Amino acid sequence: MKQLFRSNDPTVFAFANALLQGEGIDAFELDVNMSVLDGSIGILPRRLMVADVDYEEARVILSDNGIALDE
Fold first, then answer.
1. I need a labelling partner for 69 at 20 to 30 A (CA). Which of 8, 40, 49, 61 fits?
2. Which residues form the DUF2007 domain (predicted)?
3. What's the pTM?
């Protein structure tokens, strides 16, 4: 699995997941439960991961829709 991006904004994750799901790409969010450790204030970013084979296509889809990706 490869990381597409990390963010504290849950709306970005919802949008990215909807875009990827619409193209048949499965994505997985990591560090979702870390908010329990930071008191649910959202200082620890979550990561969006995809399978290695879907990575390049997912990058194109998200960047074409204005989502800033990790370099």
1. 40
2. 1-64
3. 0.84
Distances (CA, A) of 30 to 2, 6, 64: 11, 9, 23
Q: Is 44 contained in some domain?
A: yes
C-alpha–C-alpha distance, residues 52 and 37, integer Å: 29
Residue 71 lies in a domain: no
Give me the residues of the chain with pLDDT under 70, please.
35-42, 71
CA angle 33, 35, 39 (to 5 degrees): 140
Q: How confident is the model at residue 35, as a pLDDT?
A: 61
Which structural domain, as residue segments, surrounds residue 46? Answer: 2-64
Q: How far is it between the farthest Cα atoms of the chain?
A: 35
pLDDT score of 42 = 65
